[in-house]
Design a protein that fits this description.
- This protein is an alpha/beta fold.
- 52% of the residues lie in helices and 14% in strands.
- The protein contains eight helices and five strands; from the N terminus they run αβββαβαβααααα.
- Strands 3-2-1-4-5 form a five-stranded mixed β-sheet.
- A hairpin with a 3-residue loop joins β1 and β2.
- α4 crosses α5 and α6 runs antiparallel to α7.
Length: 225
Amino acid sequence: MEHIAKQETAFVGIETGKLLLKTVLLSGGQVLCKVVENDLAGYRWLRSWLQRNDVPVMGLRVCMRLDAPFSEAPAQSLAAMGMLVCDAQGAPLLQFVHKCGLDEEAGYRAVVLAHYCEAARPAPWTPPSPAYLELRLWLRRLQAIQQVRKQEVALLDEHLRNGQQALHQLLCQQITCLDAQIQAHEALIMEHVRRHPGMPKPPELAGSRRNIARYAFGHGVSSGR
């Protein structure tokens, strides 16, 4: 943890968007701005830009709003590059924004996040475990299959009303296959959760009454109920 103990002279704030990352760098009394694409090539270009400005990326404190959309991928990638990604949100950020005479929405802007990063030195964010990331991918795949099933059921009723028996029968068979896939996915997800106890409940299960949320996270994975 040597990079944490060293004197920090550069700070970064990043505003995330679906396609772009707006970046502000505070270094040597200068305020520098850079916009890159929100993809792997963009993250690498951002790293190169920082290095060209004589800013070592290892241990560089970077503030982001991890509650903002499209922030997950850049946070994980920048942390993997050695940067100290900090989740800037909650009461400390709100107090800083109000102290600056700004409204709450300003807390999402890159320049505000950069100055907050310099002033508050928030604690580094801990990236999620590979098991947790795999769980979220499984859940997203399950949600995609469930969405297809929902669409097929809507068409099923339409074909039945229109007397299209052949199409109705075909969709019934497809829905049966989708039901089997859903059950298989849920079983695999439950087994994954049991193999990795103690994982937090993923946002994909927020407000869900699905068996996975109810039994695996609600009642505890060790009980098996």
